[in-house]
Design goal:
This protein is of the alpha/beta class and 413 residues long. The chain folds into 2 domains: 270 residues, Rossmann fold (3-Layer(aba) Sandwich); 89 residues, formyl-coa transferase, domain 3, CATH 3.30.1540.10. It is built from 17 helices and 13 strands. The strands form 4 sheets. The chain has a 6-stranded parallel sheet, sandwiched between helices. Strand 12 and strand 13 form a beta hairpin. Helix 1 crosses helix 6 and helix 6 crosses helix 7. The relative contact order is 0.16.
Length: 413
């Protein structure tokens, strides 16, 4: 299948084969990005059921008769550019087939709990001697070591444990999670970086290696300046709602007809804002002339700015402040995001054919990477369960149709 862009000639990871033994979000995010960058990603799924996320709906993709299919929007969001095969890893024959497939792959990505794959003979320690070239990436909630290693990890739990919820929400309200599973997604992105670094290391040395990725580690890492604020000051960051801990004014304000974001990033921008808003005296006030002063005097400045912004419409502020180079934006709903001229111009929504909607296409969110010489490619829409089982087994392992019938009858595939 071809999508918006099918040029695979110069894809950065063309020629790299990935065995994807992941499910739900963190692992599939990683492997979809690898696939977008040109890797041949072979996704192993359980016979009959597949990736858990296939059932994480509604909504589900509708077929030509407007009936729900087995493909949830959740699954579609992170499984582009993969070939799906069904393989029962709990069976001895399934394990043997998996090892044979590993011998044909450059990278394995898995997100089982530590120790789970040991019972199948597929843990890194069990196969590394046979496949010293292999890059083996394990994605778990808490990593392969430490007191929590055996626990199951979920994005929501990690957002709580990793501190991001403690600084998200209103000061007088409860902690709030981020509206998307960001810990999962960020871990998948970090995993891609690690895998590409490991591929480069192998190119230089011939050595494979084990990559140990943890949701909690990734969550702690992307606390970023909020975490560093604590490490430097010793003061525990608190929830500030839509305020920024280090920049003022950098927050949500209510205009006369709705909400907008004002993001004044430096003193010159604050001066230009005040001039446009008709309050140049604020920029000259020693309490507010520098960002450090504005952070210190946030309590007195914010109500004054709130009254000023409330007097005009969203359009007034956005159009006027853009003209004087002061960052300001609406708060778009998701439908407004995909209707935004900039989002449209950047082709952040793509259309790809899918076997459930023959002759038609489904909409997917594009990969944001823009490489001038080796662009991402969209070759295969998210697969039906087991769509490529026969194709892959014949191509990689030269298994005959008769053998495949036997494997299917025994529940191996």
């Amino acid at each position: 299948m071809t999508g918006l862009s099918s040029d695979h000639t110069h894809a950065p990871l063309s020629g790299v084969r990935v065995l994807d033994m992941t499910r739900v979000l963190a692992g599939p995010t990683c492997t979809q990005i690898l696939g977008d960058l040109g890797a041949d990603v072979i996704k192993i799924e359980r016979p009959g059921r597949g990736d858990d996320s296939r059932g994480m709906g509604p909504p589900y993709l509708k077929d030509a008769e407007d009936k729900d299919t087995q493909e949830s929007a959740y699954f579609l969001s992170v499984n582009r550019n993969k070939r799906s095969i069904t393989l029962n890893l709990t069976s001895k024959e399934g394990q043997k087939l998996a090892r044979r497939m590993i011998s044909k792959c450059d990278v394995v990505v898995e997100n089982f709990r530590p120790g789970t794959l040991t019972q199948y003979g597929l843990a890194h320690d069990q196969i590394r001697k046979d496949f010293p070239f292999l890059i083996y990436c394990s994605i778990t909630g808490f990593g392969q070591t430490g007191p929590y290693a055996s626990r199951g990890g979920y994005d929501y739990l990690v957002q709580g444990m990793g501190g991001i919820m403690s600084v998200t929400g209103k000061p007088d309200g409860p902690p709030e999670k981020v509206g998307v599973g960001v810990s999962d997604i960020i871990t998948g992105m970090y995993a891609v970086i690690a895998i590409q670094a490991a591929l480069r290391h192998r190119e230089l040395t011939g050595e494979g290696q084990h990559i140990d990725m943890a949701l909690l580690d990734s969550q702690v890492a992307w606390l970023s300046y909020v975490g560093e604020n604590y490490l430097i000051s010793g003061e525990v960051p608190q929830r500030l709602g839509n305020h920024h801990p280090n920049i003022v004014p950098y927050q949500v304000f209510r205009a006369s007809d709705g909400l907008l974001v004002l993001a004044v990033g430096n003193d010159a921008q604050f001066e230009r804002f005040c001039k446009f808003a008709g309050c140049p005296d604020l920029a000259a006030d020693k309490r507010y002339t520098t960002n450090a002063a504005r952070v210190k005097n946030r309590g007195s400045l914010t109500p004054v700015l709130a009254d000023i912004v409330a007097g005009k419409s969203i359009a007034h502020w956005i159009e006027g402040l853009v003209d004087v180079n002061v960052p300001c934006s609406p708060i778009n709903t998701i439908d407004q995001v995909f209707a935004d001229p900039q989002v449209i111009a950047r082709n952040m929504k793509i259309a790809m054919p899918h076997p459930h909607v023959a002759g038609e296409t489904i909409d997917l969110i594009a990969n944001p990477l823009r490489l001038s010489r080796s662009p991402v490619s969209y070759r295969q829409s998210p697969p039906k369960l087991g769509q490529h089982t026969a194709e892959v087994l014949e191509e990689l392992l030269e298994i005959s149709q008769q053998e495949m019938v036997s494997l299917h009858d025994k529940g191996v595939i």
